Amino acid sequence: MPLTLHAADLPTLSRGFALLGSGGGGSPHVAQLILAQSDGWPIAVHSIEELEPATPCVAVGYIGSTLLLEERLPDGEPFMPAIAAIERWLGVDTSAVCSIEGAGLNGLSTLQLAPHRAIVDADCMGRALPDLDQISLLVDALPGLVAATPTGAGGVALVHGARPEDVERVLRTATSCNGGWAGFALGGFHVGDLVDHAIPGGIERAQTLGQAMLAADALRPEELATSLHGSLLGVGRVVASTPEPGTAGAHSYDVRTDGADVLRLVARSEFIALVCNGTVVAASPTIIAVLDTVSRAALQVDELAVGKDVIIIGLPAAAWWRSDSRRLARARPSRWGIVGLEEVC
Amino acid sequence: MLSAGLTLEALLEHQDAGGLTVVSGSEGSWATVAVEVREQDLPDSVTDGLAVIVMPAPAVSWQTDALVRRVRDRGFTGLALTGEPMGAGSRALAERLGVLVMHVDHPTRLARACWQLLEARDALTLSTVQKIARSIEYQAHDLGDLLAHVAANVGHGIALIDREGVLQGAGDPVPDSVLRSIDFGHWLDIAESSEGFAASVPVASRSRHGLRIALHGRNAGIVHRNALATAVEVLMPIVAARLLVDEVESVSDVSRSSGLLGDFLESHGGLNPEVEQRMLARGWRVSGYHLGFRMVGRGRVDPMELLRLLTSKLALLPVDSHATTRGAGVTGWLTVAHAPTAAQLAHHIRALHELHASALSTFPIATGVGSLRSGSDGLATTLGEARDAARLATDRARAGWFVSIDSLGLEQLLLSWTSSDTFAPAAQSLLGPLSETERHTLAAYLDEESSVLATANRLGLHRNTVSGRIQRIQAALGADLSDPETRLALQLACRVSRG
């Protein structure tokens, strides 16, 4: 039976997707505002199994700068130019939609398409990741995939059957042409493909996490971590923030606990690792959620600053990433050339 | 891997530990040291080890953290790194894990220092001794220069001491507590206090006794102490030789200046250009006003010793002064550019009297001071006067063995000379055989230039009477009054006995 979402569920979902963002993926706030005005409520969300496997499907999401997106807000149908181009290219109409990134802003963005397409509760990352070649369908190199993104002023760039890294390279450029962010779509697959090549149940997970967060305001950090089915990695204060030389845009936050543990929270566009007393205790794809101790809000990387008190919780990565070393290699810190963050306890 | 026992203090005290500084932690002592190019080459399990890693430390914070953690996990409690300085987070982690972290500019030199302190104790001694040997290669101007070379080369303080304290030193000062605990009775003494230690041995010197040369440093373990103890024994003859060289140099300098003074005096003030040149080279000005003085011994006095004392005291006078040995005494003079007033002159003479008084406490001397004279001739004259005055002073205990020409006229000089403590008794004994009348007659006869007639007129006697008395006097004295020397002696004797 499909999961039915109501407009009142939005804050809960937002909190859940913010946690899954691991400090990245953009704030779900904008998507929440757009969806609040939608007349499609209530929205039915289908599990993969509930839909006919041969249903042509499209995966969508905002790519580019989420900060720019908050400045230049999307219009009514930001994904339609890309979806229309894909449908025209393939000669099929897509009747199902899933998310490229089940975290942050993109966790909610699929719901915008609810009036016209069946929403599939599956996504292609299970967390937030920065690059297009980290989309699970591309990681697994499914044949016949078509990716498209608007280039501004009515133009659309479309790549068909390209290597994953070329999809990233070409459409990243197109995104710049479009003004820094764009509504991306990936087609050329069926709902049935999502069984093996995507991460199912992201919306349900976000809702569960969001509900747990709402119920957990008074819980101690250990209890909070347990209620989120995660592990408490540390509670402390940010005492320093250091750009790390020669390490692919990495930045580290020196967090000290009351017990004098030295925590290094390593970030790029997401939190990608936590080192405790010289030992790596969590690393991408494991989700590292950093919560403000006072508000319990999940913090984005750019919201973390010296002097903030934080609770750091590790949430397990989707099993899909760890099912294959090739998949895992696409999401580990070494993917960005960052060394020394490989081991996870 | 090296093994034995090594402390942080010993490393910090080492002369060349490669620019070691402590980054985190304060105390460290290790049973073993492992030196490796990379951290992963370190032994897997040690107890109380010090790890020295030659490759630069990672610049990335979490990699540094991980390095500290892995090194600790292997059992190391000390870590020496080179490269970028460690950040605050990693330092805090090191402290938490109980790892003393050091930064070193040259890890291989630190490795050598560890090796010397642990495995090759004699190597440290040898290297210290080599450094002392190297100090000799540099030309030292004097003892102070030599000590400075040694202190700089060995990297430890050095001091020449006697029971009163430090005479000369270089490098860090010796802590008082260490100085007090030095035993002057031992050959090799290792003195120790909470502030440090000093290894010292006696130094033989001809001029000074009870000297010791000491190398000192902070407390840094037995290896350092042994090295410094051996080093100070090797150093001792070098210092003793330097003391001797300094003495010989000063003696030879005095002998040159003494020779020059001799040449000048022999020329009787008529300067030849060569002598004048040499005098100028020494800073002896002949222009201006001079006040000569001379000090001679009334017993056995070493003129060099006397000169050494006088030179140090003369340097304190606010006028240009020179002195050198001459014969068995010291001759010197004060020079002023313009004619001094009577009060200034009296002040200078008083200064010389004080000089005399202070020397008198050490040496049995007599001092003569000449009169104020100007120019080259004047210098020769005042020095001649000083010489005569000094000769007079040797007999004048009542004047405190001090005679200044300036206060005497020529006759007074003569009288003062003849009435001296040795001459007066001699005169009495010389004239002893004569009656009072005969003495009177003899004095008149000598005063009247041996003229019998003039004597008779003067005494109101007949000339035959005078002639007869003279015959008797000659017989009584056994003297020949036609001999001028005899006449002079008798005339002076008469003056003294009459006075």
Output the keywords:
heterodimer; A: alpha+beta; CV3147-like fold; CV3147-like; 2 domains; seven-stranded antiparallel sheet; B: 499 residues; alpha+beta; Udp-n-acetylmuramoylalanyl-d-glutamate--2,6- Diaminopimelate Ligase, Chain: A, domain 1; Beta-Lactamase; Alpha-Beta Plaits; 4 domains; six-stranded mixed sheet; five-stranded antiparallel sheet; 18 helices
CATH topology of the largest domain in chain A: CV3147-like fold
- What would you call the shape of chain A? globular
- Distance from N terminus to C terminus of chain B (CA atoms, Å) equals 100 Å
Q: How is the largest sheet of chain B built, in terms of strand order?
A: 1-3-4-5-6-2
User: Treating each run of at least 4 consecutive H or I residues as one helix, how many helices of chain B?
Assistant: 18
Topology pattern of chain A, helix = H, strand = E: EHHEEHHEHEHEEHEHEHHEEEEEEEHH
CATH class of the largest domain in chain A: Alpha Beta
Uncertain segments of chain A: none
Q: Would you write up a description of this structure?
A:
The complex is a heterodimer of chains A (345) and B (499). Chain A is an alpha+beta fold. Chain A contains twelve helices and 16 strands. In chain A, the strands form two sheets. In chain A, strands 1, 2, 3, 4, 5, 6, 7, 8 and 9 form a nine-stranded mixed beta sheet that branches. A seven-stranded antiparallel beta sheet of chain A has the order 14-13-12-11-10-16-15. In chain A, α1 (10-20) packs across α9. By secondary structure, chain B is of the alpha+beta class. Chain B has four domains: 2-118, Udp-n-acetylmuramoylalanyl-d-glutamate--2,6- Diaminopimelate Ligase, Chain: A, domain 1 (3-Layer(aba) Sandwich); 121-244, GAF domain (Beta-Lactamase); 267-408, Alpha-Beta Plaits (2-Layer Sandwich), CATH 3.30.70; 423-498, Arc Repressor Mutant, subunit A (Orthogonal Bundle), CATH 1.10.10.2840. In chain B, 49% of the residues lie in helices and 22% in strands. Chain B has 18 helices and 16 strands. Chain B has helices at residues 8-13, 61-73, 88-97, 107-118, 121-137, 143-154, 176-180, 222-266, 273-281, 303-314, 342-360, 375-393, 410-418, 423-430, 436-447, 452-459, 463-477, 484-498, and strands spanning 2-7, 20-24, 29-36, 49-57, 76-83, 100-104, 157-162, 165-170, 189-193, 196-203, 211-217, 289-297, 320-326, 329-336, 365-374, 402-404. In chain B, 40% of the residues are buried. Classes of the chains: A alpha+beta (345), B alpha+beta (499). Chains A and B meet through β10, β11 and β12 of A and α2 and α3 of B.
